[in-house]
Amino acid sequence: MLADDAACNSRNKFPGCVYPNAGRGIDLYGDNIEVDYRGYEVTVENFIRVLTGRMEPSVPRSKRLLTDDRSNIFVYMTGHGGNEFLKFQDNEEISAFDIADAFEQMWQKKRYNEIFFMIDTCQANTMYSKFYSPNILATGSSRIHENSYSYENDNDIGVAVIDSYTHHVLQFMEGINKTSQASMQELFDTYDFDKIHSHPGVRSDLFGRDLKQALITDFFGGVSRAEVTPPLFHVESPQSPPQFDDPHQEVPAEPVHPPDQTTPELLTPYELFVSQKQLSDRDARRSLRAWLAIGILVGLVGFVGSKRTR
Amino acid sequence: MSFEGEPNHGTNLDPSTLSFESLWSRRRIIASYWLVVLLAVPLWWKATSIDRLSLPENRVRGLSGKEISFPLRIHLDSSAVSHSVSEIADAVTKVLSDDLKEGGSGLAVSVTSSDLEEHKGYSVKLLQDGSKNVVRGRDLLLSTPNHESEQFGQSSTRRLADVMRALVAPPQALVSGSAQQAVKYASRYRLAFTLLNQDSASGNAALSWDIQSSIHRYLKPTLEKLSVLHNFTIESQVQLHAPLAFDPTIVTHNNSQSFGLTPEDLTVFVNSAEWTLSSSVSNDPVLHFVVFVPSLLNNPLYILDKKNAVTNSNAFILPQWGGIVVLNSPKEHLSIDDLHSTFGIFESQLHALLAVPTLPADVTSDEIGPFTDWQLDALVRRRTRENFGDSRETLESIILLVNQISNMPVGQDVKGDVQDALSALDQASLSFLRNLESW
Q: So where does this one cross the membrane (chain A) (predicted)?
């Protein structure tokens, strides 16, 4: 989900590319980034629909999260945020409660095995404070009442290109290949206030496994298990299939692409998640209400008018 | 009354004489505002309240702990063995039901002797010659060693029960290599067959294949037999360029330089970023079957074991995803006969992915079909039990969720779905009982 298509923005001096630093080492946009939700499609409602799987039947496969109880999911969020909320577009927010309830619905509907939740925003650690569903590992960039800062400005583009925390995680991930045995604990151990300029947090009380056993590749890289099929036409005992600890997984990652974030804003009240059904009902009610109000108004005006002429 | 500084034009206007200034009108105007507010209250109430219909919680709770049970009647014919049939039958029934109770498979097996009327269920026939145990349809021909024919002892009963148990409730080891290989049940699957050339420009490539006739010849019997459970949609494609995301290890095999895929390589073999292996036209789960032809630079390509020694297998399964066969130095056109061994592997991989149990080691099938009715029935029972359990859990968690999140609307569609699911579950548990009576 990319609300702001920076790569294809006309003000981007390097069309089709997003660089994580002023040196322009790696192109984050790459050749095979797939953007499923872009621009104004990125709404709180759509995000929660993707998570919970409540979709119209006509929604195509690429816009769905087709996971089951054996899938590991990585959710990365960034943007402007504050105490227990994150802004979507310029007109709505998702609150920590919304995400927590969405994850609970996912758990009850068996849509995940494990979730790795990462958020980079001001006061990010408040966003995962409301989670209550099992098997979620969460990490955020900054404490409550603490800002997350951008990493550096690219003077050619004229904007800050990446956040400190995301930059740090990216640096770490660049050193990991698909067959790496690095664990989550190793990632969290590299967190350093001097480099990130905020205090990143980790929440692992809901997570069932030891962080030293949880591999980075459990959530990244599309690594699956493989079992060698014994040859068919030989009469010999099948060799024992190789075993790997990685569970089968799917990594629908939100591409790393953060704008800079600064000011915290006020907490808005808990947003209701409305089902499709209720939406259409609500529309009907709304128009009914409007017509009734107009009818009463017209009645009143007519009544006063008739009085006046008398 | 007149306004200061303004000239008086004839008559003095008395405000109390203006129609809209009369006390009566004023009161009515104010009252009408309140009337609007009052009339709007029920409307406002209706429009802002969340629609939460009550779900049949008690019926769902009644399901908890309930398992579907399959009463099986196996008919025993032991005329070839000089021993009382009913005694054997009773003994086997007892051993079997003790065994199955532990497994929690929901089976209630009763073995009956041959004197019953016409039957449609399973039959086991004891033979005295020492040949192998043979399965045919729902029949099992079980050989008993000669010396046991005089007394049908405890060990024979045990052996008989073990074979029958492995057939009606295959243990996990017989289902597939590991419990996680099989995909979750879906009523529809897409099978996507891909002939994937790493680099056809290198010269080592298969450019076409007789896929339609091969599927027809090699897989159709399996697919037809499984059609009671699943509906298959098949698609196929040939790709001419499919780079690997890693470099294969160089190994020496038969005194020549070859290339190998280590166990780690296999886990990241599928280059999901660059390969498009299936169309995304539907949301059905996809099972992938890939023939991978390495480029000349990586030819021949073998699968290595943990010690980097070449294995004699050229295929592997990615659990719940599909199967991959590596084909070294193929012909440019793969005919039906060229694809014989490949599709043999695909068939066994399909069986593993769809959790078709294999026969126990000491039993063979003399059928032409891909697998016997014993296996199919065991699979259907397994899937039924899984689905029954899953639906029960889903219903329970919906109730839990609705109670937990008080802002969640529960509309008529949700209520209807829950009721439909409940009646479907009731029907499922009833129909298995009814089936028994019709036998």
A: 288-306
